[in-house]
Amino acid sequence: MIKSGGSFLYNGARCTIGAVVFLKGLPYMVTVSHIFRGEGDFLTADGMKLTVTRILKDYDLALVRLPPDSKVKITEFGASAQLEQAEMVNDVHTLQCRVVNSGASLVYLAFRRFDMPEPGDSGSPILQGGKVIGLISSVTLNNCMGTAISSNILLSLEKLLK
Question: Domains in the chain, please, with CATH?
Answer without folding.
Answer: 7-65 (2.40.10), 85-155 (2.40.10.10)
